[in-house]
Amino acid sequence: ITSKPVLVKIHAGGVTGMGQIRPISPGHFVADTTQSMVAAIREIYGPQMIGRSIFDSEAINAMFDNRLAGNPAARAVLDIALRDAQGKALGMPVHQLIGGCCQPRIPLEWSVSMAEDVQVMIDEARRAVDEFGIRVLCLKMADRRGWRQDVANFAAVRKALGDDVMIGIDPNCGWTVADSLLAIEAIKPMGLGYIEQPIERRDLQGLAQIRRAAGGVPVMADEGIFTVQDAFALAEARAVDAYCIKLYKVGGLTAGKKIAAIAEAANIQLNCGGLAVQSQLEAAAGAHFYASTP
To answer: What span, in angstroms and rounded, lies between the C-alpha atoms of 45 and 70?
Structure first.
């Protein structure tokens, strides 16, 4: 089964709002597939939206909860298309509808995939820095050969790039708490920028333990944050320093803004992630979210 982008058009009041999300399952922690998105939209969500005002964002999101829970990518593409329709109806960009422009510049991060040969990782990292001017890299971790190989990979990339580029790490839940503590201790002297979701997403106490041991290196939740309830639980446990908000994961702009409010209240930073390379429409939605969020 292959994954194809899902494009949604909402026609209302003489305007057409558009949104697009490319689901990345099967094989990913966000369970939506192309087929499940299309079914949810055609059979459940879509019919319930007919006749509603495009400005009823909260009521429509409540309907999503009541009619078919979960399905964040399906909800996200509809929420984004609704916001696009609102902006077109009022003749203004979406970021002005959801907070205005408070971030006029958007710094970019580049994720570097794992490879059997570390030279492949070095070459990708150099391409990001030299061709695209990227100053923040995220190295994927949890190599099948163990955490020591992850440390060796980090050391090789750091040596190749020097000290002027921030390098973070993302094991995608692939380490244990013990792995994390040992690896972070080894990597930290080499200039560790941040640590993204090192362990299983529900282990909030383990994340808090890692955060305390990291000694000021920020710990970020990704797989661990889908909902406003997840955001609250992470804040209450003092488990992380940052949330990674991906619109396809949290259910769109409306839900993302609520998570951002929890982050602000708890003094937690935000990173806006996603699959910008897969869809310009998804990239645009992420840019408007970032630009309008403190």
So the answer is: 12
Cα separation, 209 vs 174, in Å, equals: 16
pTM of the model: 0.94
Per residue in 189-248, pLDDT tens?
Answer: 999 999 999 999 999 999 999 999 999 999 999 999 999 999 999 999 999 999 999 999
